[in-house]
Give the backbone structure.
Amino acid sequence: MTRRELIENHVEKARGVIRRQGKALSTERDYCGWLRRYLAFTFTLARGLSSEAKAEAFLTMLVPQFGRMGRMGLMPGAERLRLLDA
């Protein structure tokens, strides 16, 4: 089985769970997208790393992609304005 097939197999299992939970289609798409990114990233890591180390490496990799303005886009409006005024 190829990496792509392994990833899609895991994504399909997650999709089934998400649908049974009755989540919105947009939530399903987002969750599956993040799962694909995470699984693809873990294939680049050395074997034998703990789950915690893999998650930490993934999140560390994301930090440069979501700089100050990127994180602010996720904040409620009032908090975002307070930071801009600082």
Summary: The chain has a mean pLDDT of 83. Residues 3-85 form one domain.
